[in-house]
């Protein structure tokens, strides 16, 4: 009878609690949730906090990197040596190199350089053979280039193509003038100036062929007509006459390139310190610093009403960086004309940001650029304001040993430890849940068996009572 009861109860149990009638699944789920809340949730909360802190350091790093870039721009000595040019008239532009010096010049362009052009007489067809022979082109004193004309290339179109492929320094084109014999071959020197004038000779196998009467120019006359004369650029600079083979005139003033586009009346060329570029670089630094301050304010803020805090509130690394950078702003620099940012019109506001007084800074740049340069980058081996700032920023941002890398590495290590603890606690919970599931299964089976026995006995007693 016992064997029958056991078999019957086991067959009837299809899920936990079915045999006993108890909600054992819910009990197990509650136990598991309780374990997870007590063992896993604290670890998950810590992981969330550490990840948020790592992300916050990413934001801080980005702000400091922008500040570093702006500081390095101010540390470039060439910034304080850059010049700008202006002209009072038109037809000329100017550009400077590092060899230029500030100064003012009177300039007048009286003639532009131009390239020589030669034209043949017109022919009726651009595809008719003109003869066979050798066409020789020479530009200035360059080596002459000879082109053999034969049945493959001796039409006007073929000659044009052959010249353009020859590398002679000449460009050939066909012009249609609309006459009865409209097609002319026009040769133009690739370079301007009298030193790039062309010489053209033709030697034909038959002196009566048409090409013999079309080509030839010895520098002053020939079968071809000069349609554009080779000219040099001519200008005066502070009363001194200057000629140039090109309309790009280099080093008429040392370190200055003039680009001529038109003749005109006398005008003034002014070469001066490029204070606008320096001002913009200083302004970019101030903007980057203020952006950094704003980022730190957000990352370390505390909202009492909402009881929420920034990810880096109370963080010692962030506090150290802020303290050191603020100290850089107050520290006296050297013994030159300017020792403090405030003397340049850059003041530290109550909220920790920097503010530029445009008039004061512009005046300093205009009146004493050398002293401004000395303040920012130093002189005679001494470090300026930017030197200390960039040293600090390098210390924070160095990818191998920087302050921020050290801190984020520590956080990453902590995160790994939390992940290991989580895995250990999860394994413990899984083990306990397996044990409880086994115990509940046994309990379910036992209660089911007892219920079956009870039902059997009840049936037997009922049968006995009914027989009486």
TrEMBL record:
<comment type="function">
    <text>Required for morphogenesis and for the elongation of the flagellar filament by facilitating polymerization of the flagellin monomers at the tip of growing filament. Forms a capping structure, which prevents flagellin subunits (transported through the central channel of the flagellum) from leaking out without polymerization at the distal end.</text>
</comment>
<dbReference type="GO" id="GO:0009424">
    <property type="term" value="C:bacterial-type flagellum hook"/>
</dbReference>
<dbReference type="GO" id="GO:0007155">
    <property type="term" value="P:cell adhesion"/>
</dbReference>
<protein>
    <recommendedName>
        <fullName>Flagellar hook-associated protein 2</fullName>
    </recommendedName>
</protein>
<dbReference type="InterPro" id="IPR010809">
    <property type="entry name" value="FliD_C"/>
</dbReference>
<dbReference type="InterPro" id="IPR003481">
    <property type="entry name" value="FliD_N"/>
</dbReference>
<dbReference type="Pfam" id="PF02465">
    <property type="entry name" value="FliD_N"/>
</dbReference>
<keyword id="KW-0975">Bacterial flagellum</keyword>
<keyword id="KW-0969">Cilium</keyword>
<keyword id="KW-0282">Flagellum</keyword>
<keyword id="KW-0964">Secreted</keyword>
<keyword id="KW-0966">Cell projection</keyword>
<dbReference type="Pfam" id="PF07195">
    <property type="entry name" value="FliD_C"/>
</dbReference>
<dbReference type="GO" id="GO:0009421">
    <property type="term" value="C:bacterial-type flagellum filament cap"/>
</dbReference>
<comment type="similarity">
    <text>Belongs to the FliD family.</text>
</comment>
<comment type="subunit">
    <text>Homopentamer.</text>
</comment>
<dbReference type="GO" id="GO:0071973">
    <property type="term" value="P:bacterial-type flagellum-dependent cell motility"/>
</dbReference>
<keyword id="KW-0175">Coiled coil</keyword>
<dbReference type="InterPro" id="IPR040026">
    <property type="entry name" value="FliD"/>
</dbReference>
<dbReference type="GO" id="GO:0005576">
    <property type="term" value="C:extracellular region"/>
</dbReference>
<feature type="domain" description="Flagellar hook-associated protein 2 N-terminal">
    <location>
        <begin position="20"/>
        <end position="116"/>
    </location>
</feature>
<feature type="domain" description="Flagellar hook-associated protein 2 C-terminal">
    <location>
        <begin position="230"/>
        <end position="452"/>
    </location>
</feature>
<feature type="coiled-coil region">
    <location>
        <begin position="408"/>
        <end position="435"/>
    </location>
</feature>
